[in-house]
Amino acid sequence: MSSKVSNFSDLIQRVTASCLLHPLAGISRADDLSDAGDDDDDDYHNAIAEEQEEEDFDDNEDLKINSDWGGGDENPPPRMAEVEMLMSQVFDAVSVMKRAYVSLQESHCPWDPDKMRIADVAVVAELRRVGLLKERFRRSVSGGGGGRGGRWGLGAARMREVVAPYEAAVEELKKEVKVKEAEIDNLREKLKTATSFDRVSSKSKGKSKRRVSCTTQVAASPAVELFESTMGLAKEASKAFTSLLLSLMRSAHWDIAAAVRSIEAASSTNATMNNPTATTTFTDSIAGASHAKYALESYVNRKIFQGFDHETFYMDGSLSSILNPDQHRRDCFTQYRDMKAMDPVELLSILPTCSFGNFCFKKYLSIVHPKMEESLFGDLEQRRQVLDCHHPRSQFYGEFLGLAKAVWLLHLLAFSLDPPPSHFEASRGAEFQSQYMESVVRVSSSNGGSKVGMAMAVGFPVSPGFKVGNGSIIKARVYLVPKN
User: Fold this and answer.
1) pLDDT tens by residue, 299-350
2) How far is CA 358 from its chain centroid?
3) Which is it for the CA torsion 450, 456, 462, 463, positive or negative?
4) Under 8 Å CB-to-CB from 120, ≥6 apart: which residues?
5) Lowest mean pLDDT among 288-292, 301-305, 319-323, 419-423
6) How does pLDDT run across 19-53, given as a tens digit for each residue?
7) Domain ranges in the chain?
8) 391 near 357, Cβ under 8 Å?
9) Distance (Å, whole) CA 444 – CA 35
10) Which of 350, 224, 372, 390 is nearest to 303 (CA)?
11) Could you tell me if 438 and 192 are in contact, meaning their C-beta atoms sit under 8 angstroms apart?
12) Strands 465-467 and 422-424, bridge-based pairing
């Protein structure tokens, strides 16, 4: 900004020097220049006299200038005085506009909307004033004639050449103002949507009635179907994130089999707690390296669905679903509708520490171990940003946000239903039950026949299942292995 102000001052000096070196003569009188006061004329003439005393002009040029004015000691003719008044008004307008523009820039940091509006009005007003003076100048040029008209035309052309960069700068400023206005409008819309999402609902009776009438338009059956379709979206998001994570592991030359064994160890601990007789080893039964993605997806889903049965994923001790269940169900469904069409990256850029943002922080740190992140990316920069309550702008974290949003929406829908769906997960080593489970792979016997059924057991769970209030079942996805 200081550079712009310096260039602006240099422009004014160049215009002033051009006018003093090449005074304008032989110009017809403009009718609308009589509004300037006598005091301004005297001050301006004194300034010109002082400037002329400081400049060392060529003697021949001095004679030429004096001959144009009609004598060296005589006062300038009225026509010349009018031009001087016009130039004085131009300089005044430019000076005021420069100060207004500086004020406009200063109002951006810190952000001061009132000061910005005032400065904007001042800049526009001075631009209009300069435009009017420009029209007067052009009319004066068109009114000149004869030999002096040629000299005046040369001076006008030179002045237009000097002012041209300033006019170009004004056009650029206008374009910048339009861009800033568009950005402001966009941010206002985002803020409005985000505020609606994070706003705590009013407990007044009137507002509660309005929300009931809005929410009761969704029947129980469509809500269940909506939950089932949202679960499908969560499955797809889980597959996408797992595929990206597995490709990064392979690019980092991970031992995929060792990674599967570590997942098996974690899974077997939970399985032994729930089913002490479960001792089946499934690592060697994984049919091909490509099926390691299911073990990795199992790990991701186990982490991100942990705490799903609590209204805030155990991020705090809230009991709203118990103390005020009807209001809590309405709030959850309202948040679901507000958030469904939102880009999670844009939402978290405005409200990084909202409830959903805290959920993302917690789950990212749970899924991505520090050693894993350092191995995949070479540093812990993303983890540092998350610990500082910032959301990284990376492809990996963006894919994670897609999964986090899908699970968060599913959670909001679950707590907006009455009763909420029951969350269950198949245990390692459990007998396969087609009513509640579906296999992610098809394991065949040596003679080509299917062995899915009594001869198969759960090697490890891939994704959880849900039992919805109307009796429908969303099956849990499992990886099956033959029974020993």
Assistant:
1) 999 999 999 999 999 998 888 888 898 998 989 998 999 899 889 998 998 8
2) 19
3) positive
4) 104, 177
5) 288-292
6) 555 544 444 333 443 443 444 445 444 444 444 44
7) 2-195, 220-420
8) yes
9) 100
10) 372
11) no
12) antiparallel
Reduced 3-state DSSP string for the chain:
CHHHHHHHHHHHHHHHHHHHHCCCCCCCCCCCCCCCCHHHHHHHHHHHHHHHHHCCCCHHHHHHHHHHHCCCCCCCCHHHHHHHHHHHHHHHHHHHHHHHHHHHHHCCCCCCHHHHHHHHHHHHHHHHHHHHHHHHHHHHHHHCCHHHHHHHHHHHHHHHHHHHHHHHHHHHHHHHHHHHHHHHHHHHHHHHHHHHHHCCCCCCHHHHHHHHHHHCCCCHHHHHHHHHHHHHHHHHHHHHHHHHHHHHHHHCCCCHHHHHHHHHHHHHHHHHHHCCCCCCCCHHHCCCHHHHHHHHHHHHHHHHCCCCCCCCCCCCCCCHHHHCHHHHHHHHHHHHHHHHCCCHHHHHHHCCCCHHHHHHHHHHHHHCCHHHHHHHHCCCHHHHHHHCCCCCCCHHHHHHHHHHHHHHHHHHHHCCCCCCCEEECCCCCCECCCCCEEECCCCECCCCCECCCCCEEEEEEEECEEECCCCCEECEEEEEEECC
* Residues 6+ away with beta carbon under 8 Å from 279: 429
Q: What token pair was written down for 336?
A: 């679901």
Amino acid, single-letter form, for residue 178: K
Q: How far apart are CA 112 and CA 106, in angstroms?
A: 9
Tokens for 24, please give them. 């304008």
Question: Which residues are registered as beta bridge partners of 466?
Answer: 423, 474
* One-letter amino acid of 223: A
Tell me if 313 sits within 8 A of 359, measured CB to CB.
yes
Distance CA 352, CA 344 (A): 10
* Half-sphere exposure in the Cβ direction for 18 (13 Å, CA): 18
- The CA distances from residue 201 to 69, 165, 319, 376, in Å, are 80, 55, 16, 42
